[in-house]
Structure formats: C-alpha cells, structure tokens
Amino acid sequence: MPRLDLSADVVALTRQLVDIESVSHHEEEIADAVESALRTLPHLAVTRRGHTIVASTDLGLGERVVIAGHLDTVPLNDNLPARLEDGILHGLGTCDMKGGDAVMLKLAADVTAPNRDLAFIFYEAEEVDSVFNGLRKLTESDPDLLQADFAILMEPSNAAIEAGCQGTMRVDVRTTGERAHSARSWKGVNAIHLAGPVLARLNDYVARQPEIDGLTYHEGLNATGIRGGVAGNVVPDECVVEVNFRFAPDRSEADAEAFVRDFFEGYDVTVTDLAAGALPGLDRPAAKAFVDAVGGGVAPKFGWTDVAQFTKLGIPAVNFGPGDPMFAHKQDEHVPTEHVERCERILKEWLS
Amino acid sequence: MPRLDLSADVVALTRQLVDIESVSHHEEEIADAVESALRTLPHLAVTRRGHTIVASTDLGLGERVVIAGHLDTVPLNDNLPARLEDGILHGLGTCDMKGGDAVMLKLAADVTAPNRDLAFIFYEAEEVDSVFNGLRKLTESDPDLLQADFAILMEPSNAAIEAGCQGTMRVDVRTTGERAHSARSWKGVNAIHLAGPVLARLNDYVARQPEIDGLTYHEGLNATGIRGGVAGNVVPDECVVEVNFRFAPDRSEADAEAFVRDFFEGYDVTVTDLAAGALPGLDRPAAKAFVDAVGGGVAPKFGWTDVAQFTKLGIPAVNFGPGDPMFAHKQDEHVPTEHVERCERILKEWLS
Hints:
- Two copies of one chain form a homodimer.
- Chain A is an alpha+beta fold.
- The first copy, chain A, folds into two domains: 10-165 and 278-351, Aminopeptidase, CATH 3.40.630.10; 168-275, Alpha-Beta Plaits (2-Layer Sandwich), CATH 3.30.70.360.
- In chain A, 30% of the residues lie in helices and 26% in strands.
- Chain A has helices at 10-18, 28-38, 94-110, 134-141, 143-146, 191-194, 196-204, 253-263, 285-294, 307-312, 337-351, and strands at 45-49, 52-56, 64-70, 83-85, 88-90, 117-123, 150-153, 161-163, 167-176, 180-181, 211-212, 215-216, 220-229, 234-235, 238-247, 268-275, 298-300, 317-320, 334-336.
- In chain A, strand 4 and strand 5 (88-90) form a beta hairpin.
- Chain A is elongated.
- The mean pLDDT of chain A is 95.
- Strand 13 of chain A pairs antiparallel with strand 13 (220-229) of chain B.
C-alpha cells in the first residue's frame, strides 16, 4: 500500500494522490492510503464504509462543517503519472478532484484545534451511476455522520465559491408512426417527420434565468440525442428525442417534471433521470460567514454536483475547490498549484 | 452437387430450387445445378460468368426476348426447407424469386422451338450491394449476351405486369452546431434543434404523381433515419437526417439530384446512393405484344428493380413474376402455386 506523507506541502500531496490510480470502482488502494494516514491523527475519529472514509472532530464547539471530496476519477486517458510544469500540475484527477482531497488532508493534519467541529468525507464512485455514489450511500446508511451546519464540496470551481447547483432531468420524447416500404411510403406514417414539431418547440424555447439569493441561474432545455430508423428502405415507426432539462434550484423535481410534460404536451414523454438542484442557501449564518472569509464574489453553479446531497439533508452547501471545471474529464486535465495553495490558505484561516 | 429434375412440374421444381440454400455470396451450388441442367438442353448455348448463367437460342428469328431472374436470397430466418400447404409454397426464396427461376427453367426445357429467340439469365447477388450484382456485371462484361427487343424480369409482381420502376436516391442532410456542456448550453449551438426545419420541410412535402404511358407513378421523400448526440450532458454539434427519395421514371438521376438539393436548399446535402428508374416502355412493339398476351391491366412498379439495368441498354423491360412482393424478405415468405403455374402457362403460350 502506498503511504501518504501528510507533512509534505499541499502540491506534493496532490501529486501523491494523483499517482495512486483510482478509476471509479477501483478506489480500494487510495482509500486504504487515506484511511491509514487519517488514523495517525489522534484528534480525529475515523469511520469507513466501503471505500468511503469519514474523519471527524468532536470538540463540542456548537457548529459543525463538513468538507467533502470524491476519491475516484474517470478512466485513464494516457494521462498518468502527474507532471508539474510552470506552476501547473497535469494528470488524471489533478482537477477533478485530488487537489481538493489534498487540501482536505492538509486541513485534517494541521488544523488540530479548529474553531468549528469538522468532518472530512473522502468518498468513492462519484463519476459513475449514482447508485454507487459513496456520499449518497452515506446519506442513507449514516446520516448522523453528515449532520452539520454547513458543507463545502471541494469540486473544482476555480478556487472561488459557486453556490447551490442546478437540477438535471432527462426525458425521452417519443413519436410513433407506422412502418411501410419507402417505395410505397404513403402506406405508412413517418415517425421521424412527426418529431419535427418537437424540435421546433426546442428551437423556440426561451431559457428562464431566475435570481436566487442574488445569483442569476440559467436554465436549459436541449436535445442531447435523437434516434430513429429501421433500414434505408423503410418508413420508420418510431423516433426518440433525448432531452436534458437543467433547471434552477428554485424548482422541485415535481415542478421540473410538470414543466417538461407541459412543454411537450401531446407527446409521449418518459422520465429517465431526475435529480433536484440545491438552493445556494447564502442566507444561512454559516454560509454567510464562509463567503465573508473567502472574500470576492459568489457565482451560481450551473452543473449538478453532490452539493444537492447536502440540500436533501437540509444542510446549506457550496462548491469551493481548486481547478477549472472546464478541464475536468479532459485528456489534458490540470490544476494550477496556486489554486490548491489558495484553497488551503483560505480554509486554514477560516477554521483556525 | 444437387441435381435439378427439369421434367418435374413447375411447383416441384420451385421446391427443388428453394431447398438449395443460396444466400447472397453463396450461389455456387445452385449455379452449378442450374448450369448442368441447362447443359443437357441441346437447343441452348450456355455461358457462365462467376455464378451467373446465360442460356440462349440462336434461331435467327428476328426478335429476341430476355427473361431474367436472380438466384440468391436474403439471409436465412429459420424458414427452410420449403413447405407446401393448401396451395401455398412457404420458405426462403419461394417468392423472391425461385418461383420465377423455376418458370424460366421449365420454359428453357419445354419451349424447344420458340417463336422468338430467347435468352435466359440466372444471376447472382441481387440482394446485396450493387457492385456484386451479376446482371449489372453482365451489362458491363458481356453486353452482347443481353441484346434483345424486350426483357422480362421475373421479380414477384403477383403474376401480373408491373411496368418500369421508380428510381431511388439516398442523401444525408447534415446540420452543424457547436458543442457545449448541457449545463451551460447557451455557450453552444444545438445541431439537433437545427434539424427541426429539415423535418418540417419533409412534413410539408407533397408527392408528385405523374402519369407515364397511362400508368400513375407516385414519388416519395422520407427520412429513413436520423442520428445525433454525443453524450447525455453534451449539446451536440452534428445531426444527420438520412433521406430516401423514390422518383418517377421520367426523372433522370441529375434531375432527381437537382430536385433534392433544391428541396433542402441551405443545408449540407451528401448523395450516398443514386439509381435511376426505368420508363415503362409500353409503346414499344415487343412490350405491347406481351401486354396483349398476358391480358388484364398493367400496374406501375414503385420499387426499384433490375429492369433499370435493361433500360440503361435501351431495352424495354417489365416485371412479371409469381408472388406478392409484400412477402419478399419476410420470415413467412411464400408463393401461391397458382401464380407459378399461371406465369408458366402465359409465357409458354406467348413464346410457342
């Protein structure tokens, strides 16, 4: 088992984590390394569930902050081991999100007498189907371990605060016709032609941009796929438009579904995936204090992240982590070392 | 090698042919059987090219008729051997088109002193890409063997005459956008949405139905496929609508292409396949005589068939064969024995 050196600086520690391969469903080695490093710290109580590790203080400080990061990465793409060049650390997981994990480990090791109780959650399987998600599993198996006044998810957000997140919903919009040989097409009904008005509605869609807690969210309704066709000489009897609705966090799941069903009224709509967003919660005292500590502006998070898991538990949560999310899942994934250092510095100051 | 018994009745002979498996590209065995049967007939000169057999009389009769049929079938679908039940012969190839082949063999064997010179063409690979088509190859390698005043293609047409055939053209109509993450969709351009107006035009299409030689053809313009999409969280940058244009035989290939390009003006159109139709040619004396001999009406052929190969050589040609073309390529392919017998009787009378 590789050993992590918690006395190394945060960039060196990021590099150590990156060089332990941990593609989703293969987190055992990195989880072992993280667990054994945390168990050397006497001020923390460590719990493990699968390859998810929770390390908590219990100082009775009256306020608790959860800081979370996933340990897994998307598949290898010829981008390991890590490579440091001109202040940029390159490699799989540098941005999404071992830079954030390294910050968490440094906080765990160095902030031995925090001003708020802390719980660090290193979890498995964020990059795959949500049934495997370690944080989601924990919300079901051990909700007590997550109880907190505020949560910080260290997903890449350019070392600035991105608050809340938008929800996401997928539906299949299906048209049905009648097959015929294309040489006698008038004997059939072309289901692809029938999908024309579905695309026309999508073309005419105007995005809602609600302001919530001073942040402007931006919804989106898009065909992300379309399929239809039986053979080159057949009038097809089915066409399916796959639609993704990204909705602002002031909508519930039910509200989002009602909107989409109404939008495609007259068509066969099947919901294939639905996850509510998370309200920014910037009116909550713990969140306000953190925003003041970080300084600078707060941006809305457009993509869905696991902050929504905390919202389900009634815990305000923000995204705050090193790295530009545009480079997550890219072959040339990378993180500026300055981001990692800045996140470490800000959080140490806030928690000390 | 199986042997064919040319003294058997035409239904028994159909059954013999059906029971020799001959999926496209596997016609050697059936071609061997047909060739050796024909070589027992002293009034015919036999030529073989690949698995295509031509058997001709050379009586100097001043008029020549070609009768053609393909030997291959589409793939097996648990529908062999042949099964005779209540006057219907079931099995792969019964309809498309070994009933017609059996009629040709009976004519070859029994009409030893025809009133017109004859050429029988049994050819390979009609059911696959046209580069393999035995009749097409023959038009290029041995056009002399096909010279005739009139041609009969024994494709299934309910034992009645279907004249000419419509042309067929395939195009890809492509829209191009710009990729973006679907959580920030306003940063991209959705190529599937851009395909909406393409489908709208197809929806509004009104089919031309020209009358040619007293027959009413019926064109058709249909999406036979549509594809687009990168991933469930990506605004896609490309969408392709596959369109099949079936056009009346008064249009040339160039005319058909011009129509389609004009119809989709403003879009990127790529022609992927184009085959002209065949004019009915019912004004030609040989064709007229045959129509009179068969009696009854003449229908237009909507589907494309190899009659177009003869048209390219300036030879009027019709479809006339046993079986309902709606059952070609179906698991329950079958032919009424009455159709096979009627075709044999009519042709024998006309040629004797």
